[in-house]
Amino acid sequence: MNIFDHYRQRYEAAKDEEFTLQEFLTICRQDRSAYANAAERLLMAIGEPVMVDTALEPRLSRLFSNRVIARYPAFEEFYGMEDAIEQIVSYLKHAARGWKRRNRSSICWGRWAVVNRRWLNG
């Protein structure tokens, strides 16, 4: 195989496909990920959480204060990062729904606080 054949194969593999509207709607009906945005696709890849009641295990109850925590199969080997992973998943859920998340400082004083509030709120 020469370099041109290799390039042609890569081009054919990456080439966009054309569908009629009816074919696209049929694909969307069968596969929800066909029209999902990036955040929704990441959530699909992460999967559904397994809820763990830490009150039932003495070792985990000391670490998590008898809370019910969500453990995701994709992050099964990430020990001690349950809260951080839950924040990431929460951010992705908000992004998948199209909600905006604003980062505001907890303490704003003076003219700049008024300017920032007017600028953020439009």
UniProtKB/TrEMBL annotation:
Pfam families: AAA_PrkA. The keyword Endoplasmic reticulum does not apply. Residues 19-103 form the PrkA AAA domain. Keywords: Kinase, Transferase. The keyword Transferase applies. This is Serine protein kinase (PrkA protein). PANTHER family: PROTEIN KINASE PRKA, PROTEIN PRKA. One of its GO terms (molecular function) is protein kinase activity. InterPro entries: Prk_AAA. It comes from Klebsiella pneumoniae.
